[in-house]
Amino acid sequence: MLLAHPALERSRVIRRLAETAAATPGVTLHDLYEAYPSLAIDVRREQGLLLGHDVFVFLHPLYWYSTPAILKEWQDLVLEHGWAYGSHGHQLDGKVTCNVLSTGGPAQAYRPGGSNRYTLRQLLAPWDQTAHLCRMRYLAPFAVHGALGLETEADLAPHQAQLRGLLEALRDDRLDLELAARAESMTPLEPLLKASGAAT
After folding, report:
1. Which CATH number do you get for residue 164?
2. Distance CA 155, CA 32 (A)
3. Among the four residues 33, 84, 98, 197, which has the most C-beta atoms within 10 Å?
4. CB of 30 within 8 A of CB of 49?
């Protein structure tokens, strides 16, 4: 999981989700701002980390309908032509990716006719297309909406449990990737899980 929050110590939601990810067996949490405070990204290191994982998740707040700056810098540098895409760029073929994010506004703000006019899926279309270009499978976003109103442990606990369930399902091949790729959102998670005993 690639974590991007420029002020993690002040975060209520993303910090808690990061703690949940770090405590989930089989999950690697990689804090990009901690690793690269000057944004001087080590491209070969990052590419090596990608090669060592079949699934990578981007954990971040939604900033101006996009991501914190370091994720754009990461994309620009790490996903090189001839490595991640292009006729000779096949290093990421078949890998699975998605965004786990928080929004300040409520879920109903992210729909046609809502105050933000577009769904999260639409706003994240560049991530979807990037995954497509790199021959990866892009899943629907996992979103925690209304972050400004989530203040207590009790407020956050259900979201942490859902994220833990998602990460475990990805780890254990219990997520129906076809459904998750077509869905508008991965919250709630339960409808996207494989039926018990289904062949993998």
Report:
1. 3.40.50.360
2. 27
3. 98
4. yes
18 vs 69: CA distance, rounded Å: 18
Of 64, 70, 61, 65, the closest CA to residue 99 belongs to: 61
The domain tally of the chain equals: 1
Per the structure, the complete domain to which residue 179 belongs is given by: 2-192
Q: Specify burial of residue 198 (Cβ count, 10 A radius: 0-12, 13-18, 19+).
A: exposed
Alpha-carbon gap, residue 193 to 129, rounded angstroms: 24
pLDDT per position as a tens digit, 165-189: 999 999 999 999 999 999 999 999 9
Q: State the pLDDT confidence band at 200, using cuts at 50, 70 and 90.
A: very low
CA angle 75, 79, 84 (to 5 degrees): 150
